[in-house]
Amino acid sequence: MTVGNMDSAELFDAGKKGRGLRARKHLDAGDVVFSESSFSAVVFDSLVTKVCHSCFRQQADLHRCAQCKFAHYCDRTCQTACWSEHKHECGAIRKTGKAPSESVRLAARVLWRVHKDTGIVSDSQLISVDQLKDHVTDLPEEGLKQLQTDVLTFFAYWSHGRKQHSVEYISKLFGIIKCNGFTMSDQRGLQAVGVGLFPNLCLVNHDCWPNCTVILNHGNQSALSSALHSQSRIELRAVGKISEGEELTVSYVDFLNLSADRQKNLRESFHFECTCQHCSEKISDDLMTATAEKGGSKPSADKVKEIIALSKEYLEKIDIARIDRDYHKVVTLCCECLEKQENVLADTNLLKLRVFSITSEVLSFLRNFSEASDYARRMVEGYTKLCHPNNALLGMATMRAGVTHWHGGQIEAGHKFICKAYGILMVTHGPNHAITKDLESMRTQTELELKMFKEDDKKYQSMRDAALQITV
Ligand SMILES: [Zn+2]
Ligand SMILES: [Zn+2]
Ligand SMILES: [Zn+2]
């Protein structure tokens, strides 16, 4: 695959939405519509010593740049690969004595690159960086204040560069980053670690029920043969069949929110009114707010109101306990909350699904897999009723259910979830992604264990217990 190949997509006038991209040929689920390297990207301020500034992998023992002592890298290969991007930054940090915030660093990196290569860095880039939407005029007062502060910091930092720019131009640049920046996750897809600008991706419009998904592939820089090396890049992947001429869409927000909340979020962060089919027809809102039904009887409206208010209070307390890393308290609060929700809210209710998700995550972290597996299963059952069958979040949740069941000793259910997750991730992440590769080896391992279990379950359990004792 060549990074930057745009044979499958083209720019078109998407009417009210402005510019858009559409398919130039028929596409199937899992097809890579295009892949693109970042124009510029930076690691978040909070993770500058924990994430490689070149490949965005999170790992221990990073080496820092001997000159600015700010940038961190896996090794020489990563440092060399990133030098042209870091060179000016390195000088500016040394002269100002300290690195500015992530948005200022990104704005400067973009501008240094614009100076070096102009706003277009490859033949397949469809739009110049400074032609992207900036929405500066749509910013609320708070946002404008932040922007002015950033611009001032920028000038102090950039003054060591060669060329000066107007306040308007730099403000526009910050606006572009704010509404087009793509959040980059670590190699396991578990934590947001940085933000980057991918010009072609910025042309893909939003739909709450999109036909594509975007995934960051960190590439392979560790293979012995350099012929097998690949660059870090985003991939736009089709999640279902797409006909020639159909508009390509991705979702800018998490689908697991009520349509009104998604619309509010999109209005505030991206400055448009979502009129997609799922929002206009409020599809799935009823399931996301559903109440439990037992033997044909429903809880009273007052009871439902009470439990909704209580759930929101609990979720706030749970958040605080999580920030304090008091995980046993998180579990206690979650169990109390679920007890109150039981028989009042349905398993597809978002308030219940959030608690399922946190409980299974924290219990797995505490290595209590047998209890975690039950919550993970109920979370996946709820997600399955709400999400597109090839939703990446559903895939990751299914993987978690597989791992907890497997580690909790439920090999049959574990293997089934792992196979299901593998099927989804083959579409959303592709066979070369690190997570898919992990899943593939888990699939092989659980298949083997399942075979042993079916042949002689007693022998299998005793072997398993012995193996667990060794690891404990
Ligand atoms: Zn690296
Ligand atoms: Zn440096
Ligand atoms: Zn929508």
TrEMBL record:
Presence of the UniProt keyword Zinc-finger in the record: yes
Iron found in the keyword field: no
InterPro entries in UniProt: H3K4_H4K5_MeTrfase, SET_dom, SET_dom_sf, TPR-like_helical_dom_sf, Znf_MYND
UniProt-listed Enzyme Commission number(s): 2.1.1.354
Reactions catalysed, as given in the entry: L-lysyl(4)-[histone H3] + 3 S-adenosyl-L-methionine = N(6),N(6),N(6)-trimethyl-L-lysyl(4)-[histone H3] + 3 S-adenosyl-L-homocysteine + 3 H(+)
UniProt domain SET: residue ranges: 7-253
MF terms in GO: histone H3K4 trimethyltransferase activity; zinc ion binding
Keywords annotated in UniProt: Metal-binding, Methyltransferase, S-adenosyl-L-methionine, Transferase, Zinc, Zinc-finger
Membrane-traversing stretches: none
MYND-type domain boundaries: 52-90
Record-level GO cellular component terms: nucleus
Domain of life per record: Eukaryota
Gene3D superfamilies, per the entry: 1.10.220.160, 1.25.40.970, 6.10.140.2220, SET domain, Tetratricopeptide repeat domain
One Gene Ontology biological process: methylation
Database matches in Pfam families: SET, zf-MYND
Enzyme class of the recorded protein, top EC level: transferase
Protein name in the entry: [histone H3]-lysine(4) N-trimethyltransferase
Gene that encodes the chain: smyd1a
